[in-house]
Specification:
The complex is a heterodimer of chains A (about 280) and B (about 270). With about 280 residues, chain A is mainly alpha-helical. Helix content of chain A is about 80%, strand content about 0%. Chain B has ten helices and ten strands.
Chain lengths: ~280, ~270
């Protein structure tokens, strides 16, 4: 009993260590973070301006509504990007700095290691995505009188669990391919969003893509967020979007840890768990 | 119980060849370690000598649970490195040829990060980090500076501090002084001697510095192309190979000098 408590305490300290280390790195690369923020904001603007462009070319639309729909899609894209990027860096950055061997030889479970990064990624991602959302909404003078931000926050929190689970699966890629693994993580992010109705309703997709959309947590997150922000939906009203995300989360996190462990064993067998770069 | 027991340990890697057979690149087996067997008593310091690519780093990485062996076994204080990796990880730490830190982070931040994985909370590292840095001869006032601003010798001292902070029972030193200037090299060697004398630590030192091996270790092993061909005290090795110096003993045992590296060694060095 005492041993179990000591092990649990040790794991919590390790989890805190991952969050603490990521915080140190964000602080040390603060100017880069600001530069990336502007890049994300510029990227988001290029998408959100599409609504104005449609009106300018003679289309008749509810410009405020379409702008908000696109803004939610673009912010969700950037949020997912942050979560996936931080998780992929679990391996990629450590490999580049050479600390990977010290981290992987430490007496910490891989679940704690990955969850620590996941928790930081969620916190940091929500803060950064919220700032982008507020800044772009202010830039366009968007009014969201019905918005229910509490529901929006609950939705993103629930979605994040499955995003972290899937992110863990992509985090294994740099272990298998040190050269191209990181880039392939971004491919996974893009594929996930393209079927999830990031800037359009899922119904416009071909039938097979609509089927894939059903197993993507981003589909429910985007639909729920739009209901919460545009229509002021309560948690109860978006329950139909929450429960599939809960199920996907319950499956994807253990699956992500399992996939990562398999990748780690592969790397240990083939001598890939070492510095490169 | 032995501090370290290695029995018939084997590790091989596959390498894609430039030559093709039926349009496909051939895969060639490169043996990094072949049937390595030895034991270490608690509190002992053993040096493993070998050229680049001899398998020294592969041995250290196998004992650190970073590689899975293809055959044989290794156990640390009775814990198998494959089947009981978690208890092994609690007992072991290492210093390698590359200091390996987050360059933008300070030495204090890097040490804090490493120690959290061993269950050390902020309340413990607040005092432990300055203390250990002082012990390794690192100017404590510079602990908030980014690692990138520190010299190679300073970085290696922080690497030693990182290994000792977690109080390992088995310390694996993989060429800890390679690339250091003579003064830093002596300082690090002095510190290793000091740690060995004052800690209840068992030390496995992999090096290609013959003098370092002779000065620091109880016994010296010669690892050649993945095979441990000799292991005894420096004096016994010299006697056995009828040599005046350890370098001559190495030459007699392997049939080549330290400088006499072949292409095969360079190729093996990619893995080892």
């Amino acid at each position: 009993m005492r041993d179990a408590a000591a092990t649990m305490r040790s794991e919590f300290i390790g989890l805190y260590g991952m969050v603490e280390r990521n915080w140190y790195l964000i602080k040390r690369y603060a100017w880069w973070e600001i530069a990336f923020f502007f890049w994300t904001a510029a990227n988001t603007l290029t998408i959100v301006f599409i609504a104005k462009g449609v009106e300018a070319t003679g289309g008749k639309i509810d410009i405020d509504k379409l702008t908000t729909v696109l803004l939610i899609g673009a912010v969700m894209w950037s949020y997912l990007g942050i979560v996936f990027e931080l998780l992929i860096e679990t391996v990629a950055w450590e490999r580049w700095e050479g600390t990977i061997e010290y981290t992987f030889m430490a007496p910490l479970t891989r679940a704690t290691h990955l969850l620590g990064t996941g928790i930081f990624a969620i916190g940091y991602g929500i803060v950064r995505a919220s700032i982008v959302f507020v800044a772009i909404a202010a830039f366009f003078g968007l009014h969201m009188p019905n918005a229910n931000f509490a529901t929006a926050l609950v939705l993103i929190a629930v979605a994040s669990v499955s995003f972290v689970g899937i992110g863990m699966m992509t985090a294994v890629l740099p272990l298998i391919s040190p050269e191209k693994g990181t880039q392939f993580g971004y491919v996974a992010q893009g594929l996930m969003l393209v079927v999830s109705g990031v800037y359009y309703p899922v119904t416009v997709l071909p039938a097979f893509m609509q089927w894939i959309a059903k197993i993507s947590p981003a589909t429910y997150a985007l639909r729920g967020e739009r209901s919460a922000i545009l229509d002021g939906a309560t948690v109860g009203q978006v329950w139909g979007d929450i429960w599939p995300m809960v199920i996907i989360g319950v499956i994807s996190v253990p699956l992500g840890i399992w996939v990562f462990r398999r990748g780690e064993l592969h790397a240990k067998r083939h001598g890939k768990l070492k510095r490169s770069g | 119980m032995f501090a370290l027991e290695v029995h018939n340990l084997r590790k091989e890697f596959f390498r894609r060849d430039a030559t093709r057979t039926r349009g496909r690149k051939r895969r060639r087996r490169v043996a990094a370690l072949e049937g390595v067997t030895f034991t270490m008593e608690r509190g002992e310091c053993v040096a493993i000598l070998g050229q680049n690519g001899s398998g020294k780093s592969t041995l250290v990485r196998l004992l650190s649970t970073l590689l899975l062996p293809d055959g044989g076994s290794a156990s640390i204080f009775g814990h198998d490195v494959v089947k009981e990796s978690r208890p092994v990880q609690r007992l072991v730490n290492r210093v390698s040829v590359e200091a390996s830190f987050f360059k933008k982070m300070s030495s204090e931040e890097n040490l804090a990060y490493a120690s959290r994985f061993y269950g050390m909370p902020p309340s413990a590292t607040k005092t432990a980090i300055p203390e250990i840095l002082e012990r390794v001869g690192f100017p404590v006032g510079r602990r908030h500076e980014g690692m990138e601003h520190l010299s190679r010798g300073m970085q290696q001292k922080v690497a030693l501090a990182r290994a000792l902070l977690t109080s390992p029972v088995l310390l694996l030193l993989d060429e800890p002084t390679t690339g250091l200037d003579p003064r830093s090299k002596l300082e690090v060697q002095d510190f290793i001697r000091d740690v060995w004398a004052s800690h209840d630590a068992t030390i496995l030192l992999c090096t290609h510095d013959l003098r370092e091996a002779e000065v620091l270790a109880d016994r010296v092993g010669i690892l050649d192309r993945g095979r441990l061909i000799a292991l005894d005290s420096a004096d016994v090795l010299k006697e056995e190979f009828e040599a005046e110096t350890l370098e001559e003993a190495f030459f007699a045992a392997t049939g080549r000098t330290f400088e006499d590296e072949k292409d095969e060694d360079a190729e093996r060095g990619v893995f080892a």
